[in-house]
Amino acid sequence: MKSRWQQLWRQLFLFGMLALFLAGCGRENLSALTPQGPVAEMQFSLMKLSALIMIGVFVVVILIFTYVLIRYRKRPGQDGIPKQVEGNHKLEILWTVIPFLLLIVMAVPTVTIAFDLSKEYTNKDALVVKVTAHQFWWEFEYPDLGISTAQDLYIPTGKKIQFDLTSADVMHAFWIPALGGKMDTNPGDSNKMWLQAEKPGIYYGKCAELCGASHALMDFKVNALEPAKFDEWATAMKSAESTPATASAQQGQQIFQKSCLGCHAIGAEGGKLAPNLTNFADRQRVAGILENNPENLDKWLADPQAVKPGNLMPNLNLKPEDRKALVDYMSTLKVYQP
Fold this sequence. Notes:
Residues 247-334 form the Cytochrome c domain. By secondary structure, the protein is α+β, with helices and mostly antiparallel strands.
């Protein structure tokens, strides 16, 4: 029996150390523990405060528990019943007041920050981005700029971004760990939040609400650009044009206009049921998960359900030569590379 318990404790220790080690392996662009903006900084300060209080309580309880075990353990030759203590008013008051005070210490900054972040940000200089969650992709619309895109969110650094969040189907949750969050996106309703990136870079976003078969694959990228480069991107998006140079790409354009334009848009032309593909070739990922290269794009076009189960894109059963032409055309959909 002793050997069995020793083995169990060794396993628990091993898994505990493994969990501690893995906690330090997160990337700064996908970790709430390396905040990259003021909202994330405020939320991280609450995490640190809560962790310190919980660690302190844990240590004190373990020390008292260990002291009691040693001090009042049964000793050799001790056969009588020890003195029975039925209550201690001072201790009862003490262990009621201390947790109450600790809760106040945690509650005051938590409530203060929560109310600050819940305020609708109406600064006239804020950039407004309307976010619509779909199964299993993200749509980003810039009402003041007349721009619509998908999967890759572009924002300027050093500026507050007001997000108007909604959903086209089921409940999702918008979360950019390094910048702050998260906030639910609900069908028929709009939630508001604001975030800000302090330095240029690529940050990773996730859906943080179980929403279907490919919930775990519902990722997006945030491209934080210096203000001047963001303005260049916005200008390029508004004047984007694609002119296929090769015969294969021209054939692909015809296939796209015939088979894809009903759901997908390029610029202002096309449908809105599926991701806008104006700057598709600038994106790092196909369908938000595969590296953006011709092989993976062909794989996606051949069988979308095999790549992202449950998504709404149908299999068009294109011939290999038609898929190649479509891949060649979509590879020309470039707008701006900062």
